[in-house]
Amino acid sequence: MISKVGLHTMWNEHFGIGVVEMLAAGLVTVAHDSAGPQMDIVKPALPIDDNNGDARKARESRTGVGFLAHDAASYAAALARALRLTPSARHALVEAAQQHSLKFSDSVFANHFADLVTGPKHGHLFGATQALIGNSGGSKRDD
Asked: Which domain, by its residues, includes 32?
């Protein structure tokens, strides 16, 4: 059997790379509603059991990338929602989550780091970024 839901219970985790990995792996993610997962990673999906057949609400329920919880009752409710997703709602949520996880990729990090170190000159990455991505023969850029 293949896992469909990822559960992350750590309170106040600074970032939450495990949460990002669950999103990237295609798991419907339930994470603690605090710190990094809450502020930076999980855009909550609306509760699907509140849709009552309303197509607009059904579309909205698929715009998030997971669920947040803070205690046993909210984890139970989030897990129930995650497990009750229709195949199409699950597919849409997982697709959005995988796309969202790319925001935390090595290349995005390297680009942001390079912009901090060298500035976003000419839209190219030089110096520190070449070192980060392993360009050992890197040539220097003349401004």
From this structure: 5-104
Domain match, 78 and 119 both: no
- CA-CA distance, 22 to 113, in Å (whole number)? 24
Q: Which of 6-10, 95-99, 115-119, 120-124 bottoms out in mean pLDDT, i.e. has the lowest?
A: 120-124
Q: Tell how far CA 98 is from the center of its chain.
A: 7
- The identity of residue 64, as a single letter, is G
Q: Are residues 92 and 121 in the same domain?
A: no
Mean pLDDT of the chain: 77
The answer on 99 and 141 residing in a single domain is no
Residues 45-67 have pLDDT tens digits of 755 444 454 544 444 444 689 99
CA 51/CA 28 separation, integer angstroms:
19
Same domain, 30 and 98: yes
Q: How far apart are CA 108 and CA 87, in angstroms?
A: 31
